[in-house]
Design a protein that fits this description.
Bound molecules: 3-phosphoglyceric acid
Helix content: 40-55%
Structural class: alpha/beta
Strand order of the largest sheet: 5-4-3-2-1-9
Order of helices and strands: HEHEHEHEHEEHEHEHEHH
Number of strands: 9
Length: 215
């Protein structure tokens, strides 16, 4: 799958939502009720970070939840891309990008949302064929003002900012012409996951889904 077609697939996935919840799971037993709560709350596109040993099992389970579109985050290596694909991830997300990772997702047929934080990084992705990027870490790299500035000369690339995005600052990102959606972990707080407070997470998802209507 070429980077161009990966980007097309990512745009189609992102068009379903304005917020992608980012999930860090320590226990795969939480995967099903969590995904069900997010889908019920109106956020069916879910990123599970490959930062815990439970992540691949969680992706496997979430991929079977009706209505959920599950991606694997924190892809760092070709091995991560392969494991994510085998587990059933429908897309991948990486904090940055390397030629090795881009080659791996192309071979694996796994649409990638690659990370970039500077104009040169965005240009390198675009040169490679990607016209979508995760702007990461968004708040630390200048937030909405930075994204607006990068978008002025580079209008071809659409972004999903993540890193420090909250219910408070998400609307300002979502108003930018070059933002297709935002990602964040505020919808899936660890204390609520550990307590099994799925109704609470569904409520957070519902609030996030209503932040700014997607056209
Ligand atoms: C990520 O994992 O991609 C982001 O770091 C999530 O950032 P947040 O926890 O600040 O939402």
């Amino acid at each position: 799958m070429t980077p161009q077609n990966q980007s097309k697939a990512i745009r189609a996935i992102a068009a379903q939502v304005n917020v992608i919840p980012i999930v860090v799971l320590d226990d795969a037993a939480h995967a099903r009720p969590l995904a069900e709560a997010l889908v019920a709350g109106g956020l069916p596109v879910i990123e599970v970070t490959l930062r815990t040993s439970a992540a691949l099992d969680a992706i496997r389970v979430m991929a079977t939840v009706p209505g959920a579109t599950v991606g694997a985050g924190t892809l760092l290596t070709p091995k991560d891309a392969h494991a994510a694909k085998v587990a059933g991830a429908q897309f991948g997300v990486s904090p940055g990008c390397t030629p090795h990772l881009a080659e791996a997702v192309t071979i694996e047929n796994l649409p990638l949302l690659p990370g970039a934080a500077t104009a040169s990084e965005v240009m390198a992705l675009w040169q490679h064929g990607y016209d979508v990027a995760k702007f990461f870490p968004a708040e630390m790299y200048g937030g909405t003002e930075a994204l607006k500035s990068i978008g002025a000369p580079i209008q071809q690339v659409a972004f999903c900012p993540t890193g420090g995005v909250t219910s408070q600052n998400a609307p300002a990102y979502l108003r930018l012409a070059n933002v297709m959606c935002v990602g964040g972990s505020w919808i899936t707080p660890k204390d609520k996951i550990v307590a099994g407070d799925w109704a609470g997470i569904e409520a957070l998802a519902r609030e996030a889904a209503a932040l700014s209507p997607h056209e």
